[in-house]
Amino acid sequence: MAGTPGTVPVLLSGNCNTTLGVLAGLRASGRRVGLLWLDAHGDFNTPEEDTGGFLDGQGLAIAVGRCWTALAAGIPGFAPLSERDVVLAGARDLTPAQQRTLRASDVTWLRPAQVRDAAAVEAALDGLVGRVDVVHWHVDLDVYDPSIAPANDYAAPGGLTVGEVLDLLERTAARLPVVSATLASYDPAHDPVGRLRATALDLLEQVAARAAPVGRAP
Ligand SMILES: [Mn+2]
């Protein structure tokens, strides 16, 4: 993924698993890749643990090599990320079993209250600085509070505000080069007057304004 200065690759997707392709492309640029994954959910189920069999609840688990390893290896350039290079932010709709799995992992999990806590956010970013060269910003739009508009059928209360997401973006971009982004899982049927759509389009502009060109490894 060769970057052109002033441009930022953005993926608009109906689901979260498509980010696997972006991660593979970034890795092909020769950089060490970190991941901010904003989502109401963990997306950290493996098929063995998933009681619903919902593939889109497994995307982050695939990204770190917990499951579907042979399938993921078919994505050109894909290699699993280290869990230490992943920050999951805003996730709040998890079963006790899902919470246990996440806590036992090396993924840094910022619940919404911790996203609102600048010290917690900076500590999470500290964990990436020096380990990764670039960061992909993945946003499942259900990370936003559904009072804006529910992003999809799985929206959950207690989500982030527009300002909280922007603050997290600013803090990330201040510490690390944000080189690409995904906006995922938007179902317009739940957003009849386009409030969340407008929020998402504004976020895209904010990402573009702060993003660094990915370029190629020296
Ligand atoms: Mn998701």
UniProtKB/TrEMBL annotation:
One Gene Ontology term of the molecular function aspect: hydrolase activity
InterPro entries the UniProt entry points to: Ureohydrolase, Ureohydrolase_dom_sf
Tell me which Pfam families the record gives. Arginase
Q: Which keywords does this chain's UniProt record carry?
A: Hydrolase, Manganese, Metal-binding
Give the enzyme's main class according to its UniProt record, as a single word.
Answer: hydrolase
Q: Please tell me whether the keyword Manganese is annotated for this protein.
A: yes
Q: What EC number(s) is this enzyme filed under?
A: 3.5.3.-
Q: Which CDD domains match?
A: Arginase-like_1
Q: Which family does it belong to?
A: Belongs to the arginase family.
**Protein name in the entry:** Arginase family protein
Source species taxonomy: Bacteria, Bacillati, Actinomycetota, Actinomycetes, Geodermatophilales
